[in-house]
Amino acid sequence: MRSKYAVIAMAGLAAGGMAALFVTSGPQTSLSLPKTPATSGKALIGGPFSLLDHDGKQVSERDFAGRPLLVMFGFTHCPDICPSGLQLMAAALDKLGDQARNLTPVFITLDPERDTPAKLKEYVASFHPAIRGLTGSLAEITAAAKAYRVYFKKVPLEGGEGYTIDHSSFFYIMDRKGEFLAHVPHSANPDALSLRLKSAL
């Protein structure tokens, strides 16, 4: 029997996800400046963090070394984007089959005020048993979000009843050494995400 979160997620997937951004360039004309030589380097995404997992154990990036890492940021009170993203993550893990055991999928809350380890454990388990929920103090969460270049902001709801969290919506794929490989938008489909994960394994 599917949880209420999974049902909400499937509705979100059917409605579509966030649009991806693309940069294009047209052909050069005789008046164009010379092309700048292409350069390459490491993306400044990822880095050290210290958080609490959903079993109450303190963990850092070192605890995940040796296995590719699939990282998602969100919060349990998220009405649609997060459930849709977690449903997509779960579907991609299912497509990988036994290969999924060779990577670690994590869901890092952006709402440590409400997302206790117990709450996170119940939430992520409703999508897939392999997903680990991570929380911590606001300072620890802010440091982790900064390391992954994740935008988030606490926004009061109209009428002053509670709040929500605005945040960016991407999956981050890290290699076995914790180096950034790729980011994938929540608008991707399970086939695209699982294929990208296969290349990391």
Would you write up a description of this structure?
The protein has helices spanning 4-15, 81-96, 117-125, 138-147, 190-200; strands at 50-53, 58-60, 69-74, 104-109, 132-135, 152-156, 163-167, 170-174, 180-185. By secondary structure, it is of the alpha+beta class. The protein has one domain: Glutaredoxin, CATH 3.40.30.10. β4 (104-109), α3 and β5 form a beta-alpha-beta unit. The longest helix has 16 residues, at 81-96. It is globular and about 45 Å long.
Find the structural class using helix and strand composition: alpha+beta
Tally the helices: 5
Tell me the Rg in angstroms.
Answer: 18 Å
Q: What would CATH call the homologous superfamily? A: Glutaredoxin
Beginning-to-end CA distance, first to last residue: 31 Å
Average pLDDT rating? 82
Output the CATH class name: Alpha Beta
Low-confidence stretches: 1-40
Q: How helical, in percent, are the residues?
A: 25-40%
CATH architecture: 3-Layer(aba) Sandwich
Give me some keywords for this one.
7-stranded mixed β-sheet, 29% helix, 201 residues, two-stranded antiparallel sheet, 9 strands, 22% strand, Glutaredoxin
Short description:
This protein is 29% helix and 22% strand.
Secondary-structure topology with pairs:
Layout: H1 4-15, E1 50-53, E2 58-60, E3 69-74, H2 81-96, E4 104-109, H3 117-125, E5 132-135, H4 138-147, E6 152-156, E7 163-167, E8 170-174, E9 180-185, H5 190-200
Parallel strand pairs: 3-4, 4-5
Antiparallel strand pairs: 1-2, 1-5, 3-8, 6-7, 8-9
Helix pairs in contact: 1-2, 2-5
